[in-house]
Amino acid sequence: MKIVTIEQMRAIEDRSEEAGVSKDTLMENAGLAVARSVRYHYGPLTGVHILVLLGSGNNGGDGLVAARHLDTWGAQVDVYICRDRRAPDPKLDVVREQGITVTCASDDQDLSNLQNLLSRAHVVMDSILGTGRSRPIEGVVKDILQALTKEQTHRRHPKIVALDVPTGLNADTGAVDPSTPHADLTISFGYSKRGHYAYPGAEYLGELEVANIGLPLELDDGVEIELLAEEWARTRLPTRPANSHKGTFGRTMVVAGSRNYLGAAYLAATSATRVGSGLVTLAIPESLTTAVAAKAIEPTFLPLPESAPGIVSPDAVDLVFESLPAYNSLLVGCGMGQEKDTKRFIERLLLSGRTLPPTVVDADGLNTLSQVDDWWTRLADNAILTPHPGEMGRLTGNSSRNQDRITAATSAASRWNKTVILKGACTVIAFPDGRAMVSPLSNPGLATAGTGDVLAGAIAGLVSQGLSPADASALGVYLHGIAGERVRDEFGDTGMVASDLLPTLPTVIRDLR
Predict the structure, then answer these.
(1) Are the C-beta atoms of 335 and 257 separated by less than 8 Å?
(2) What is the CATH number of the domain that holds 344?
(3) 239 located within any domain
(4) pLDDT for res 401
């Protein structure tokens, strides 16, 4: 499923009209879809009071169509016009002819009628501004939204249903106006919007549904942002032939760990085994081998020479290169630290120009790169970079964490000619050709040390099984995210730890397959 900007959505609607499906037809379909969704979530409708808050534009038109259907199906519907609509208004005329009560804010100076309607409403439909909002909300609309929020805070009802976006949420950036209400259900028309997957806006949506409104197929060919979905992930799973051996599923080398971060090496290597890599070798400073092997019993080990206990020697890079031709993927950086010799080792490994298999660069690998001028010109293009926002800031030289994440990731992937995974709530996977995929998942339980090591190991393990860097990156994000959801369902989002994900990854793959 594609994710669109406001401008792209308008262009698609224009092309729809040219293809013979009018905007009026799309509005009728949208309103009907909203009414059906409300009936599904809050029906049976007999005796249910529904208040439709109406704006002056097309979003209000969608609300009028929904009001008409809901009234026909037995709900007690009231329409409250927040901004006067332009005459003639055939859809409003039909609502009035149907006997639905219509109140105008311009005739309700103290908003007493609104307060009465809010007090009786079980469901409030927010069809005030939709994606058309471009400036701060002021005046009567601000007063109406504040009254709605106060009513919602005061009692369990009403449930708020937003059409496309809650009023005041920027559908491109996810920015919100101070008056924006928190919806219980948001129904997006045709496509989800980029602002649905950006914070803080994503917290205001409640449950998000995308309604089919009858747009002709193939009008979105120019849209390069896609939602990461189960159907896509299923088609990318590596096959598992019955007559396989461990070599069938590839060999992964994980270069990780230091005296302060033994756990990172264990998590990354074990994760690669859990997603199906046939053989995983953990290259680690030699004095740490015994301690890590006591926990990680499946990987083989490549003990690396040290310059100090638990610190890899820069000269160890020759030993790694001697072994690498036998491996299908490489992971570098998890828990390696930022000692001087470690950074020299990483730079020699990644930026020497010598041949590497597809390589996942994580954590201290990224931190080392960020200290090298024009590092991307020396790093192989088959690399996969997995920064969290802080690491992304160091790599780009932009410390702002409030920028548009999709734009930040796609711009970086294009500039560096690498696959970039910008981790966090609604992780973005961006590819060098301008395409990107966005995970719909946000899980605070994953905001704990080590979960990034699990993700990096999973991606490397998938690459070793023959997936392209792009497919392995997106599938790894999907499997990691669903595993996190399952662990949260079992334990809650407080106290989850990274190792909880490891036994869950194979069950996610099993169920997906």
Answers:
(1) yes
(2) 3.40.1190.20
(3) no
(4) 58
Mind listing the pLDDT tens digit for each residue in 278-319?
A: 999 999 999 999 999 999 999 999 999 999 999 999 999 999
Q: How far apart are the first and last CA of the chain?
A: 20
On whether the CB atoms of residues 329 and 357 are closer than 8 A, the answer is yes
Whole-angstrom distance, CA of residue 20 vs CA of residue 16: 6
Q: Are residues 404 and 444 in the same domain?
A: yes
Cβ atoms 116, 49 nearer than 8 A? no
Residue pair 332/255 in contact (Cβ under 8 Å)? The answer is yes
If you count them, how many residues does the chain have? Answer: 513
Confidence of residue 453 (pLDDT cuts 50, 70, 90): very high
Q: Dump pLDDT digits (tens) for 29-38.
A: 999 999 999 9
Does one domain contain both 166 and 260?
no
Verify that 181 and 299 share a domain, yes or no: no
Q: Is residue 228 part of a domain?
A: no
Cα(12)–Cα(30) distance, rounded to whole angstroms?
A: 15
Asked if 79 and 54 touch (Cβ cutoff 8 Å), the reply is yes
Residues 186 and 263 in one domain: no
State CA 120 to chain mean position distance: 37
**Contact indicator for 368, 345 with CB cutoff of 8 Å:** no
Same-domain pairing of 93 and 216: yes
Q: What is the DSSP letter of 448?
A: S
pTM across the whole model: 0.93
Domain that includes residue 142, residue range: 3-223
Count: domains in the chain: 2
200 and 281 share one domain: no
Give 194's contacts (C-beta < 8 A, 6+ positions apart): 3, 4, 5, 171, 172, 173, 174, 225, 404, 406
Give the integer Cα–Cα distance in Å for 415 and 354.
Answer: 22
Rounded Cα–Cα distance for residues 448 and 231 (Å): 29
Contact indicator for 34, 211 with CB cutoff of 8 Å:
yes
Q: What is the torsional sign of CA 86, 88, 92, 97?
A: positive
State how far the Cα of 385 lies from the Cα of 45, in Å rounded to an integer. 51
Phi first, then psi: give them for residue 420, nearest 5 degrees: -125, 125
Q: Is residue 235 part of a domain?
A: no
Sign of CA dihedral 175, 178, 182, 185: negative
- List phi, psi (to 5°) of 174: 80, 0
Alpha carbon distances (Å) from 491 to 448, 494, 513: 14, 8, 25
**Secondary structure of 12-45 in the HEC alphabet?**
HHHHHHHCCCCHHHHHHHHHHHHHHHHHHHHCCC
Same domain, yes or no, for 186 and 260?
Answer: no
